[in-house]
Amino acid sequence: MNDEWAVTASGIVKRFGDRRVVDGVDMMVPRGSVYGVLGPNGAGKTTTLRMLLGIIEPDAGSRTLLGYDNPRDASDRVGYLPEERGLYPAMKAREAIAFLGALRGLDWKTGRERAVVLMEAAGLGHAVDEKIRKLSKGMAQLVQLLGSVVHQPDLLVLDEPFSGLDPVNQERLEALILAERDRGATILFSTHIMSHAERLCDRLAIIAGGKRRFEGTVADARGILPQRVHYTPHRPDPAIRGVLPADAAADGDSWRFELPNEGIESLLVRLIDAGYGISGLSIERPGLHEAFVRIVGQHGDVAKEDAA
Amino acid sequence: MTRFRRTLRQTFTIARRDFIATVFTPIFLLFLFAPVIMGSFGAIGGMGAASVSGGAQDKTRIIAIVPAGTARPITQADAGLRALFRDEEAPPALTTVAPAADPAAQARAAFETKDVDASAVLYGPLDAPQILYGPRGRRSADYLGVLAQTTLAAQNLGGALPAIAATKTPVTRSTTSVGGQHQSAFFAVFGIFFLTLFLSGQVVGTMAEERNNKVIEVLAAAVPLESVFFGKLIGMFGVAVLFVAFWGTVVSQITTLMPAGAAAALGDLTPAVGGPTFALLFAAYFSMAYLLLGSVFLGVGAQASTMREIQMLSLPITILQVAMFGLSSAAVSRPGSWIATAAELFPLSSPFAMAGRAANSPELWPHVAALAWQALWVTIFITVGARLFRRGVLQSGSARPFWRRKAKATA
């Protein structure tokens, strides 16, 4: 049993008909980390997660879950929130959470007790005995999320967990993810909303067109793109272009360009010597969003609905 | 926890959910009291029909055109004979009329009377009476003939038949009657048919619910789909057990509350293999029928993605079920015939037909063979059904067969 990795995947492949929806994806998710699987719609994220969980079998490749070759052997230690949310409408919220726990080996009594605690902590204490059909979509989604953590899993897999949630509930969900990590759980989640990934992920993989295009930390991803300089001279003058790097683009009275490989100092000296002066200067790191667009755009495989 | 124990626990978690979701709903009361509801509808229909026919019966008469001296004896004889009939089977009331100049014409005219409907009319001497009868009056005509004969016999014996002192002693059969066995057989076939018809539909209903609510992926992620499949079968089986236990208790106690005659009639419904053995065999055959049909319903139902598709797919299976019921009913009414053998051998009708056979024939060894035969088919149906279920639910190809999984594990 491997203690270092919560999830490993090596060259996993899934075909639906003639289409290779997932095409040789590798993944190593460290224990105790928050790991994001990023990708555009139809990239193969959901299918990848389903294979990792053993819901469907890969056509090729191998994977381990919490050290088990057969993901089913780890099922009691895993929590899962699927992309398509679903609960029994006639069940009460507390029962629904206890039921999801019971599926993962938690006894009903403990499940009911923990459900109340979790719901109160999530601000849903008033809805403990409400039937699911009476809850709003966002509340039902939170209930399902609580059902995926009620048995205190070692691995929490969340497929597009933020979709459909309002900003308040998105914040609650982020807090819950961090609380689960602090408890010692590993969190693996998919998303195409970069801001969440940027805030939460220790590591991430970017998938596009069924292939893994990037793997590393958020900083690594952002490091793919050069830093950009935002410079404003004292004296606007079109002739300044002759001093600035070739890629400089005007932005009102300011200029934007990539940070030169040799650094900014020599350029600044030249600008001052030429009498343009410095009214404003900032060096900006590109965000994950820009890195994602660059990585995905390079491969041009965006699209097609995720058939899985 | 071993994999087997975990699978068992997961299966029963699903079963528990389905059982509770079915039993703790108002709809379940409809199912539980379906026999009462069906019986009530039957009774209401019967009462309506009886009321209509009773109204007509009140105005229907049998008429004897006899001299004044014969009117009294024939009325007395009618009173004596009428006592043998139940109310609903009694002939129409007797009216005596004195003969006119032309009794034949008088008899014909009686059928045209507006006040009453003449069912049959007798005229002429009692030793050679003429009896006319109208539509549906043949039985009345026969009765008038016997009435004339009895009246004549009484007159020949001086006005009354000799009195006798009969000693009447009720006797209970030590063996079951053929009629009772046939009735028991039919009830057995109908009981299994009714239960499987309802429960198979319910199984597909819960399946549809999960497809609609997208719960199926949550289940599929947490437990193997085989556990979902078995859990659903077991959950609905629990519902059936509850139903059978309820009505079994009611039926076993109801005879104490019934009038002696009705209780005796129920008592004649004794199956050939004996009550306790029959109960065990009924339970076994019901289980087999349910597992066979339930797995077909679940496997096929999983191929549909909407309620409408499920209904469309369920229809042919329901027709198949009704056909099995028809085949088995024919089998139990003709034990030992080729149709009975065919019904007992064909996997889908075998549980029905063999339950009927248990009522008709005391031999036990055919049941051992039949249960083994059916268990084989249950295994086949469940294996294929579970694979269809997995393929249908995930729309993503079947699971790797166990022999390939085994081969991979050993590699």
From TrEMBL, chain A:
It holds the Pfam family ABC_tran. SUPFAM superfamilies: P-loop containing nucleoside triphosphate hydrolases. Gene3D superfamilies: P-loop containing nucleotide triphosphate hydrolases. Residues 7-234 form the ABC transporter domain. The keyword Transport applies. The keyword Nucleotide-binding applies. GO terms for molecular function: ATP binding; ATP hydrolysis activity. SMART domains: AAA (SM00382). PANTHER family: ABC TRANSPORTER ATP-BINDING PROTEIN, ABC TRANSPORTER ATP-BINDING PROTEIN NATA. Belongs to the ABC transporter superfamily. This is ABC-2 type transport system ATP-binding protein. It comes from Sphingomonas aurantiaca. The lineage of its organism: Bacteria, Pseudomonadati, Pseudomonadota, Alphaproteobacteria, Sphingomonadales.
UniProtKB/TrEMBL annotation, chain B:
This is ABC-2 type transport system permease protein. The keyword Membrane applies. It comes from Sphingomonas aurantiaca. Keywords: Membrane, Transmembrane, Transmembrane helix. GO terms for cellular component: membrane. The chain crosses the membrane at residues 20-44, 185-208, 229-250, 278-300, 312-332, 371-389. Pfam families: ABC2_membrane_3. One of its GO terms (molecular function) is ABC-type transporter activity. It is a multi-pass membrane protein. The keyword Transferase does not apply.
